[in-house]
Amino acid sequence: MTVIATCAFRPTYDVAKSLEMHLAYIDEAAEAGADLVVFPETSLQGYPEDVRAFDSARVMEHLYEVAEPVPDGPSVAAIAAKAAERGVHVIYGLTEAGAGRGILYNTMVLTGPEGFVGRYRKVHLAVNEQAYWRPGHDWPVYDTPIGRIGMLICYDKAWPESCRELTLRGADLLVMSTAWGILPGHGEAGDNVWLRQYELFDRVRAAENGRWFVSSNFVGELGGIDYFGLSQIVDPLGEVVATTGTSDAGLAIATVDLVAGLAAARVANLGAFLIRDRRPETYRALRGELPIEIDG
Question: What is the pTM of this model?
Answer without folding.
Answer: 0.95
